[in-house]
Amino acid sequence: MTTANMVQAVNMAMRQELKRDKRVMVLGEDVGLNGGVFRATDGLQKEFGSERVVDTPLAELGIIGASIGLAVNGMLPVAEIQFSGFMMGSFDQIYSHAGRIRMRSRGRFSCPLVIRTPYGGGIRALELHCESNEAIFSQTPGIKMVVPSNPYDAKGLLAAAIRDPDPVIFYEPMRIYRAIKQDIPDEEYVVPIGKANVIREGEDLTLIAWGSMLKTSTEAVDKLNNKHSVEIIDLRTINPFDAETIINSVKKTGRCVIVHEAIKTGGFAAEIIATINDKALLSLEAPVMRVTAPDVPYPLAKLENYYLPSHERIIKAIEKVMSWNSLYYFHLSHFQ
Amino acid sequence: MPKKTLNEFKTEYLQVLDENGNIDASLMPKLSGQEIKKIYETMVLVRTFDQKAFNMQRQGRIGTYIQIKGQEASQVGCAIALNDDDWIFPTYRESGLLIARKHPISQVLQYWSGDERGLKAPDGINNFPISIPVGTQLPHAVGAGWAAKLRKTKQVAVACFGDGATSKGDFHEALNFAGVYNVPVIFLCQNNQYAISLPRSRQTKAETIAQKAAAYGISGIQVDGNDVFAVYMAAEEAAARARKGEGPTLIECFTYRLADHSTSDDAQRYRPKEEAEYWRKRDPVQRLEKFMEGKGMLDDNHKKEASEKASARIETEVEKFEKIKSSSPEDIFRYVFAEMTPRQQEQMKDILGER
Ligand SMILES: Cc1ncc(C[n+]2csc(CCOP(=O)(O)OP(=O)(O)O)c2C)c(N)n1
Q1: Is 0.90 exceeded by the ipTM?
Q2: Which fold has domain A197-330?
Q3: How many other C-beta atoms lie within 10 A of the C-beta of residue A34?
């Protein structure tokens, strides 16, 4: 066991995989000598050499484009994009190619590539250093999208991503990079991609979150002092997401709140709600509510607290869903 | 203190075979009579295919097709410099290169009829699937070459693209990466003078595309793209250097698209007729014929024979193509991931009417 925060866990996963398989390589801006701007790759170049842990020119398209070629020709590249806001420079490569190579070549070629990037706000950073744009990759066929919320999962999911035969995007919640410490095994383990985790069982309401919002949501629920029995689900994988765990939970509780840091319209909560409507509509006692960022660009530091889902907004949503009275609303809509 | 000149660059141009069929013997690559005959037959095959595919599009037997007429020397010349396990990253305008690299002709037709199975290269031949978004495949070639270098496989990766692609950021990032990591890659630009309607002069103020190599610290050369010997020689030299660890090369094949941009295009809207006349006199196939006739390697009978042989082969392939059973709808799900996701399985059943 080692006591590790999220950054250290990510580092442990890469070290473990670099040791395990000599096809694994790490590349990105400042990942070598400097160990990454968040130190996620600290010490890796020293241990594995500059051919396997590679500082690249400042070029996001080039990093991902070249990684695709590396993956296709027998390597297992783990590419870092310094901040998720800069993913867009490489989006063409991800959308137009990474997710389509197996399909286009009818299985002759594949693209076992991992793209790691710190994402999300709450750290008073510069513009485009705070984005939470994971839903874009749920609309990108052929791409898996993973968001860990704690050190244990971060190590296990990153190892799973590196061993996955297809491209995986790995979003690391910057805000809790160092906020949570856990004892995590030194031995190899993987956390399977595509499986949500019920981190707390409950009877009254299902709360779904991922990444840094899991911590915020859990804290909000704790503030309610067991007023309601809330089941908390860490989604962990956005694509392909674990509908089964969600549906089983909602069938039990009949109520659901989804929290995400991304903007509301077209956010991933919308997909979860549509799935609940498909599979568990008649179990619902109240409409599913979302606590999200508004449909605006991420504001600079002075106003970011208004943007991010807060304990207060989460509690308000929980209370609203818990106090929902369908008969009352039925009357309201008929008699107004 | 006076200004100094830090560096100057020069751009080489290579032509071995001129439009009248004369060669510069001192530059001529070592090719046996047999090999030259093979090159000629491949060029005739590719041209015959191109015309056939165009006709088939007009008859509604395949969908949109992108012609290569005029660019046969650039494509065949490059293909013969490569090994099967070398990589090519082709565009849509690479049917000649694919066919010269053993991609089954029936499969090329299959692709242009809207069947993705056509892109699956035969085992052992690293023909990557065609890239439709212009320029985006350049960094893939860099990555594949980089992997070859790390794995010491001695493979070379070739990025194929047109003059239009050189305006994209991808071109810059790819050439820059290739230079920094000194990877075994060939950037094969077929400058056919147009990107749909836009002439080369409007893509860049630079006098040549080849000279752009200088900015990345890599080798660059312009060759007569209608001269199969020049293209072969440049590609062969670039591949040899790449295999020796001497890094990337940008080859600009100076050529001309004798056809419309695609089967949906009308080139008369944007280019003068006389221009095509000028280029027709520099036709890559006729030029090779003139050379071979001069050497007594070819006469009218041989020409007829080569043409008939090509037509017969293509007819066989067309028949083969037309017998291919359409793929099953499961195929659109089967190759997205190594394993289908639960949601994909559900959606597949839905589409197949099993639910
Ligand atoms: C990124 C992108 N933009 C636009 C297009 C539409 N388009 C297809 S071919 C083409 C011209 C490309 O010219 P060039 O690179 O010179 O190659 P050529 O077609 O002449 O072989 C354009 C604009 C595209 N396929 N991809």
Answers
A1: yes
A2: Rossmann fold (3.40.50)
A3: 13
Q: Which two tokens stand for residue B41?
A: 């037959």
Other CB atoms closer than 10 Å to residue B275's CB: what's the count?
A: 14
DSSP labels, A34-46: T--TTSTTTTHHH
What is the tens place of the pLDDT at every residue in A55-83?
Answer: 999 999 999 999 999 999 999 999 999 99
- Taking the centre of ligand 1 as the mean of its atom positions, its distance from the CA of residue B195, in whole angstroms, is 6
CA B29 to CA B9: how far, in whole Å? Answer: 26
Query: Looking at the predicted structure, is the pLDDT value of residue B41 above 80?
Result: yes
Domains of chain B in start order, with CATH, are 12-324 (3.40.50.970), 328-355 (no CATH)
- Using one digit for the tens of pLDDT, what is the confidence trace for A194-231? 999 999 999 999 999 999 999 999 999 999 999 999 99
Q: Tell me, what's the pLDDT at A330?
A: 62
Contact A59 B176 (CB under 8 A): yes
* CATH 3.40.50.970 segments of chain A: 2-184
Joined tokens for residue A89? 């420079």
Q: Which residues of A touch B174 (CB under 8 A)?
A: 62, 65-66
Given the candidates 3.40.50.720, 1.10.1040.10, 3.40.1190.20, 3.40.50.970, the CATH classification of the domain at A2-184 is 3.40.50.970
Q: Which among B177, B174, B200 is positioned nearest to B257, based on CA atoms? A: B200
- Phi and psi at residue B115, to the nearest 5°: -120, 110
The single residue of A97, A129, A228, A260 carrying the catalytic annotation is A129
For helices B342-351 and A243-253, what crossing angle results, to 10°? 90
Q: Is the CB of B133 under 6 A from ligand 1?
A: yes
Q: Cβ contact (<8 Å) for A73 and B136?
A: no
pLDDT, mean of residues A306-330: 89
Q: How many contiguous H segments (helices) and E segments (strands) does chain A have?
A: 12, 14
| Mean pLDDT of all residues in A313-322 | 97
Whether the CB of B195 sits within 6 Å of ligand 1: yes
Name the residue type at position A307.
Y
CA contacts within 13 A on the Cβ side of B222: 16
Whether the Cβ atoms of residue B93 and residue B71 lie closer than 8 Å to each other: yes
A80: which strand partners? A28, A116
Atom of ligand 1 nearest to the CA of B196: 11
Give this prediction's pTM. Answer: 0.96
Within 10 angstroms of residue A60's Cβ, the number of other Cβ atoms is 23
State the average pLDDT over residues A132-140: 95
Closest-CA residue to A145 (of A129, A164, A125):
A164
Question: What secondary structure letter does DSSP report for A147?
Answer: -
For residue A131, give the nearest of A196, A175, A79 by alpha carbon: A175
Spatial distance between the Cα atoms of B226 and A49, rounded to a whole number of angstroms: 46
Domain with CATH 3.40.50.920 in chain A: 197-330
Token couple for A59? 């070029």
Yes or no, beta carbons of B138 and A105 under 8 Å apart: no
